[in-house]
């Protein structure tokens, strides 16, 4: 180590970004492990395969870099090689390694063949006591074996204050060492030293400012601040493990889930989205597993359920924290066994060939602490966790998103003419705060667009969205956050404005649709039964008439949308969709 460490430190100081630092660290680790292997009894039978740096501060992946031993041997050691090979080939250690690294705070060895995991430090045990061995899940075992890895060493990557901000995994192949720890325990101390030396660089350096990834329908905008995260998502999209997308409401999790599906090998299969916010607890199991006619009172026809509908594809389960404890047990069993039974058809066990993406906007770890979310399920779904930043954290994207949303609204309304966002309007948007994230931005753009249309006339071929339109749209928003009465006046004005714009009467009865909008919004925010309590109609829940009432009110709101030629907002669409599935 006498020469290697100073050389590593020098290379780390010369690194200007995370990927470079990860490259030199992995190179040093693989070389050190190679030396140890050469001096061991496995020199002839074993070979090193690859190393991966996982940076996941706050328990969410931020960056990921892999280096293959072959690339190290056969190619010039330039960071460029890493960029080409990096995230594309990154292969992952399992969630259980991460869990064990966090729990034990030390390096560990995985014997893939035996399916066991051994932490290297056992502080409370005497030397004579047997070594602590933890079972390693079978699916992770299979995955590692499929890429020839028989032995893995996982080292904690410690950030400021000793907090574990990531891990480094080294994989090797040595059939002769199955049932033994290979070289990992002997070489663990120098390997950990390398990781500790590199840690401040790995956790502190920014990501390489790579060219923004290609955009598409589902991810039309990627700013520099999101580019490295999209690189990670691109790798994760191709895995079959469960992906956990967390992030504030409206940040774009559902669309990203769809993007991941489109970038996976399942892209030709179905993509289904189950939003638990709009499914009452008693129907959650049924919606997931499906039911046979007569399975319970009210099951008047068969329902295949979301799992059957997503066979061969991807199922996005959003708002996972809304899952009842009973349904949590059902989902855990499904994720562990990959089998399930349709309600009312206990005799038939079915296999779920489904990739799961889970969405949440709450801190699930906190939910585990409160006892509302099962810890074992949390670890089962926390395999590939990614936190989608709020729009305020990716301000470099605001004007590009605004332009994209504007073009989309315009195409819906008036495909012939052109539309542009004035530079002043873009600046105004960039300066704003966006607690509602992309959803709020989309609403503002939609509103500003209507204002611009009214002002400039629909016949106008070149429409410009100016600062004044944005300002006015924002002021409606501010008002609606403040006084209810003022917001009602705004709604009334918008109603009248719409009638003027179309130059034909807009029946006042359509104003009754407000009840539908209110209910759908409340359902989205607090769930169906609570929504009725919130608006003073608990009696409807007690008499089990609330769903009928919801259906009627949603219909009225939809009628208004149809009359003015606008798509129903997501709250209405979700309330309606949940009704349809019943
Ligand atoms: N790719 C996109 N193209 C156009 N609009 C988008 C895109 N992604 C997000 N939006 C806008 O942001 C809104 C919210 O997106 P999405 O439903 O994906 O967010 P979310 O994080 O899943 O929200 P929630 O947590 O509330 O379910 C969309 O309804 C749309 O208005």
TrEMBL record:
<dbReference type="InterPro" id="IPR027417">
    <property type="entry name" value="P-loop_NTPase"/>
</dbReference>
<dbReference type="Pfam" id="PF00158">
    <property type="entry name" value="Sigma54_activat"/>
</dbReference>
<keyword id="KW-0805">Transcription regulation</keyword>
<dbReference type="InterPro" id="IPR025943">
    <property type="entry name" value="Sigma_54_int_dom_ATP-bd_2"/>
</dbReference>
<dbReference type="GO" id="GO:0003677">
    <property type="term" value="F:DNA binding"/>
</dbReference>
<keyword id="KW-0067">ATP-binding</keyword>
<dbReference type="InterPro" id="IPR058031">
    <property type="entry name" value="AAA_lid_NorR"/>
</dbReference>
<feature type="coiled-coil region">
    <location>
        <begin position="540"/>
        <end position="567"/>
    </location>
</feature>
<dbReference type="InterPro" id="IPR003593">
    <property type="entry name" value="AAA+_ATPase"/>
</dbReference>
<keyword id="KW-0547">Nucleotide-binding</keyword>
<keyword id="KW-0804">Transcription</keyword>
<dbReference type="InterPro" id="IPR025944">
    <property type="entry name" value="Sigma_54_int_dom_CS"/>
</dbReference>
<dbReference type="GO" id="GO:0005524">
    <property type="term" value="F:ATP binding"/>
</dbReference>
<dbReference type="InterPro" id="IPR002078">
    <property type="entry name" value="Sigma_54_int"/>
</dbReference>
<keyword id="KW-0175">Coiled coil</keyword>
<keyword id="KW-0238">DNA-binding</keyword>
<dbReference type="Pfam" id="PF25601">
    <property type="entry name" value="AAA_lid_14"/>
</dbReference>
<feature type="domain" description="Sigma-54 factor interaction">
    <location>
        <begin position="219"/>
        <end position="450"/>
    </location>
</feature>
<dbReference type="GO" id="GO:0006355">
    <property type="term" value="P:regulation of DNA-templated transcription"/>
</dbReference>
<protein>
    <submittedName>
        <fullName>Sigma-54 interaction domain-containing protein</fullName>
    </submittedName>
</protein>
């Amino acid at each position: 180590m006498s020469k290697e460490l100073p050389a590593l430190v020098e290379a780390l100081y010369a690194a200007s970004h995370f990927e470079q630092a990860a490259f030199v660290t992995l190179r040093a680790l693989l070389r050190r492990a190679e030396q140890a292997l050469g001096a061991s009894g496995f020199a002839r039978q074993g070979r090193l395969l690859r190393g991966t740096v996982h940076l996941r501060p706050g328990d969410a992946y931020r960056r990921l870099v892999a280096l293959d031993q072959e690339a190290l041997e056969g190619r010039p050691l330039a960071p460029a090689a890493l960029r080409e090979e990096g995230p594309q080939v990154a292969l992952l250690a399992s969630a259980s390694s991460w869990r064990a690294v966090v729990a034990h705070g030390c390096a560990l060895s995985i014997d893939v063949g035996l399916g066991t995991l051994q932490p290297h430090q056992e502080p409370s045990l005497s030397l004579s006591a047997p070594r602590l061995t933890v079972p390693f899940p079978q699916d992770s075992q299979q995955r590692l074996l499929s890429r020839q890895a028989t032995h893995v060493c996982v080292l904690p990557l410690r950030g400021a204050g000793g907090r574990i901000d990531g891990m480094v995994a080294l994989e090797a192949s040595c059939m002769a060492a199955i049932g033994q720890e290979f070289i990992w325990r002997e070489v663990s101390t120098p390997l950990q030293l390398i990781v500790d030396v590199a840690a401040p660089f790995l956790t502190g350096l920014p990501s390489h400012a790579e060219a923004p990834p290609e955009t598409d329908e589902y991810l039309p905008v990627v700013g520099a601040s999101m580019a490295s995260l999209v690189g990670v998502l691109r790798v994760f999209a191709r895995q079959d493990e469960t992906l956990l997308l967390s992030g504030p409401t409206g940040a774009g999790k559902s669309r990203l889930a769809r993007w991941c599906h489109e970038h996976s090998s399942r892209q030709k299969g179905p993509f289904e989205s189950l939003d638990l916010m709009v499914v009452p607890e008693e129907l959650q199991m049924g919606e997931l597993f499906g039911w046979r006619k007569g399975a319970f009172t009210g099951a008047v026809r068969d329902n295949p359920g979301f799992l059957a509908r997503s066979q061969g594809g991807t199922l996005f389960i959003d708002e996972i924290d809304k899952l009842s404890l009973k349904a949590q047990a059902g989902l855990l069993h499904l994720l562990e066994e990959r089998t399930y039974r349709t309600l009312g058809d206990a005799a038939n066990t079915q296999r779920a060939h489904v990739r799961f993406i889970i969405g949440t906007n709450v801190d699930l770890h906190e939910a585990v602490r409160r006892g509302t979310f099962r810890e074992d399920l949390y670890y089962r779904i926390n395999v590939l966790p990614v936190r989608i930043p709020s729009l305020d954290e990716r301000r470099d994207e605001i004007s590009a998103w605004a332009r994209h949303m504007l073009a989309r609204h315009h195409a819906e309304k008036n495909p012939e003419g052109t539309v542009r966002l004035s530079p002043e309007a873009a600046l105004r948007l960039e300066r704003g705060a966006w607690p509602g994230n992309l959803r709020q931005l989309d609403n503002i753009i939609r509103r500003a667009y209507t204002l611009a249309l009214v002002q400039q006339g629909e016949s106008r071929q070149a429409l410009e969205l100016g600062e004044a339109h944005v300002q006015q749209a924002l002021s409606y928003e501010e008002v609606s956050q403040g006084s209810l009465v003022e917001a009602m006046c705004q709604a009334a004005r918008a109603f009248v404005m719409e009638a003027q714009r179309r130059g034909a009467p807009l029946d006042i009865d359509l104003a009754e649709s407000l009840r539908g909008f209110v209910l759908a919004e409340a359902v989205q925010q607090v769930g169906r039964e609570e929504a009725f309590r919130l608006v003073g109609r608990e009696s409807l829940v007690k008499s089990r008439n609330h769903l009928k009432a919801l259906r009627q009110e949603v219909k009225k709101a939809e009628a208004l949308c149809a009359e003015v030629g606008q798509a129903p907002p997501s709250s209405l669409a979700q309330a309606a969709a949940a009704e349809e599935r019943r």
